[in-house]
Amino acid sequence: MIIASRDLGVPARALAVGAHPDDVEFGAGATLARWAEAGAEVSLLVCTDGSKGTWDADADIAALVATRQEEQAEAAAALGATGELVLLGRVDGDLVADREAVSDVARAIRRLRPDVLLGHDPWRRHRLHPDHHAAGRIVVDALVAARDPHFFPEHGLPHHRPGALLLFEADVAGHAETADARHVESKIAALEAHRSQYESTMFVSADDAGAEQERFRRRIRDELATAGRVVGRGAAELFARLPTDR
User: Which alpha helices (DSSP H) does the chain contain, by range?
Assistant: First the structure.
């Protein structure tokens, strides 16, 4: 793996786009926590309502959606994010990169004017979840639309080109954002705010929560430490970095 660049300057504003509640935290939580601590205005945009995020076949779906919204707000606070939390509310599992979704995200880019935009890598091979692929496609298409003035003139907002695009879950990573131990712990705290996902995403069961939760924390620390070794640092998150002018 060749890492061509490392550690963008702390942006004044960053916007991270995820398919579901908790995706941004998994993909870029330590990076966002570091930037927020350094004074960046960090905003999060979540495309879907998280309504399929349970293994309970008898779950109250309306209650789950409300819970996931609350958990996402708590997670943003754990990262230190002081910007907006934008919830598009598309149905979980049905996300598509259609004109309406691209318009909604382009509008958020134009309104929030991030220096750095983050999202899923839409070109990752062997991806199972269609929402992750769609969310990646949406963020790339929305960047192009937001930067060029003749897309979506109905927004009534000036066009905006972010200075950098970082894609997490990258099929081919070429950029690293390093993190200190406290930012790793902020990422873990943000992930653990998504309590409804303990069983289905973090594999933490009620029967053995203590041991399994510690195993999950160790997994996250190990993943960031492994990425950090690539660039000779204690911890890092890896991204594909794309130019925003092509």
Answer: 23-37, 61-79, 99-112, 130-147, 181-192, 209-230
Please name the residue that has the structure tokens 């081919």: 172
Per-residue pLDDT, 31: 98
pLDDT reported for residue 210: 80
Evaluate whether 169 touches 28 at the Cβ level (below 8 Å). Answer: no
CA-to-CA distance for 43 and 204, rounded, in angstroms?
Answer: 28
Whole-number average pLDDT of the chain: 95
User: Domain range spanning residue 129?
Assistant: 5-242
Query: In this structure, are residues 9 and 163 in contact, taking their beta carbons and an 8 Å threshold?
Result: no
- Tally of residues, the chain: 246
Q: What is the pTM of this model?
A: 0.96
Q: Residues 23-30: what's their mean pLDDT?
A: 98
3-state helix, strand, coil in the chain (%, to 5): 45, 15, 40
Q: How far apart are CA 168 and CA 23, in angstroms?
A: 10
**Total domain count for the chain?**
1
Q: pLDDT band for 207, please (50, 70, 90 cuts).
A: low
Q: What is the CATH number of the domain that holds 131?
A: 3.40.50.10320
